Every structure is written in structure tokens, then in C-alpha cells.
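call fold(seq) -> C-alpha cells
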Amino acid sequence: MPPTLPFLAGFVAGLWWNHSDPWLMQSGGDHGLRLVAGTLIAAAGAALFWTGLWTFMRQRTGILLQQPATRIVTTGPYRWSRNPQYVAFVAVYLGASILANAVWPLVLLPLVIATVNWLVIPHEEAYMYRTFRDEYRAYCQRVHRWL
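ret:
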């Protein structure tokens, strides 16, 4: 399963649900603070995402499904998370939900995270264990899956 699919599906389903049965974060008043917060959170997620991609490009190893990994990346955001790209997706999702003034996508976010945690990451980790064995096992002992 492409890792972006659960995030996209959850967000779109949440927006559809919000359209059918609106549950707004803010119904009146000045929306400025909400818009600033949503923008900052989404921008932080986008920055983390691009930092992760840049880190992989500098290490010259595959990050896309079609490219094999040639090494374990332990620099940049991969020093503190084995999956900073997914942390970034959560931040973008959260920021976009705030910007959309929609609660329903947030209600679905735990399901999205669970799907990634139980259906996507285990396949990636199994590949990394098969490919890098003890080196990957040691990395997993030092660095958490998410944060």
C-alpha cells in the first residue's frame, strides 16, 4: 500500500463527512488564529517532509517504492525518528484540517495512523531487516518508530 494512500483517504473521507454533517472547529469570530496555526503546522510538516527527502537524496538511497534502499539513513530527521516522513504527513494532515475548519478529518486521524502503523510500516521494516539485518536491528533499538 502506498504510504500516502491512508492519509489522503482519511482526509478526503473526513472532508466529505464534514460536508455531509458539518462539525466545525470555529463557527464565528475571527478565524485569524486558526488560519495561522493551521498554516504553521502544515508548513512545519512540509518542511520536515522535504528535509527527509533531501536527506535521502544526499545519502543516495531509495525512498520511493520503486527504488531499493542501499543504506540505512541515520542523519537529519532520521536521527530521532525511523519514519519522519509519516510524522510530516501527520503534521500536514493536522494543519490542513485546521485550515479547512473541519473536525471530522481529525476524528479519522487515529485510524489513519493505525493503518500506517499496522499495514504500511511492518512491510517496510521487514524489508529493512531482510536487507540490513543487525545494522537495522541496532538502529531500531536507538531510534523510535515515530517519535
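The chain has one domain: 33-62+70-142.
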